[in-house]
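Lecture 7, part B: from sequences to assemblies.

Below are the input chains for today's worked example.
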Amino acid sequence: MEDVERVFERMVREHQDRLFALGFALTGNRHDGEEVAQDALLRAYRALVTYSPERIHDLKQRAWLHRIAVNVARNRYRGTRPRLVELNGSEQDVAPGPEAVAMRTAEIDDVAASLAALPVRYREAVVLRFVQDLSYAEAADVLGQPVGTVKSNVHRALKILRGEDHDRADN
Amino acid sequence: MTALTTDLKRLGSLKAPAGFADRVLSQAAVGDSYAVFDTVLGPVYVAWNRHGVSAASRARSHAEFEEWFKREVGRPLRAATAPAELAARLGRELSGERTLRFDLRGLTEFEQSVLRKAKEIPRGQVRPYSWIAREIGHPAAVRAVGTALAHNPIPFFIPCHRVVRSDGVIGNYSAGGPEAKRDILMLEGVRLHKLQELARAGYRYEGVRSTKIYCYPTCHHARRALEKNVVWLHDAAEARKAGFRPCKVCRPEAAVAS
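Predicted structure of the full complex, as structure tokens:
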């Protein structure tokens, strides 16, 4: 029992930033992003306590947690239209990383908002590949899709984000 | 790299909000919480989790307690505000009630049985190390009993201070040395000077003529006896020779058919 608790604590501390960024990028706002990350970690814990020590040991934590978080996010926006980002400017609870300092909070929120406007399949692919920096193979594994599908979804997403998409026939 | 992918990468390098990890751990009920409680013994640090109270110490600071907990218990630990209900129960436990649940996971079977047995010693009474050893079925393991008590993670509440040497020496006490042990026993109403005087004279047991029963001197049956009926005894053999049988409550020797 103690061992699972210690494994989980390490997991939370190691992956919290990554999962928060993932939730933020998938939902389009910080508040929902935090909830997705928290929900994903709690689900992970409930699963972990049922696993054998060998299974816990062999777990590829990063891919596993990404898969859970993507599912949590899907359950949230299933049936709801992508939300537009809340630009209320009160973001003191966010501790910016060294790279993020250079970029103003509002600009990051804009990026997240433009991702939120993408169709889900494009959004998931581009977020995993470019926000989370997974390889195409890893992203395909997380999404349970062929690598080719992920690649074409990523390219499609980039095209829309760059405003080069003139024949949108999605959804 | 294009500006777009740089922006996406920056989004990915965001940090989770402050306190996020602790909130998740507390939601999952992982690990232990702790707070400082005001007690008759002064401020005491107490840690607890969903299994019960898991540790106690008179640390001088949060940092000292956290350090000690990490070394002794090793689970995640976070500071919390002291729940009023737990504060009340801790107070009642120190005045002799026994309602607290304790989390002894992580201790060996032997250590757990030693601590559970120590918990049976009523407030205001003491027992020798050998009594615990015998009661838990390891009569020869007196030293190991001492070691297990020395590593009691929940002193004061699991009353390891009520276990003393039968020669009257107070014995060591991990939660503040012999002085602290003496103070707590006196606070609980043990007449320590009398007890040590008797022990030094070689007297271990108190026989009561009117009932023909002999006890540990702090057993409440022994204390109820009239002074004129009391006989001091050196050992079990002497007691039996004088026609006394062991008390069934404090059990001064291994269960004997009466």
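Note for the exam: Chain B has eleven helices and ten strands. Keep this in mind when comparing with the next example.
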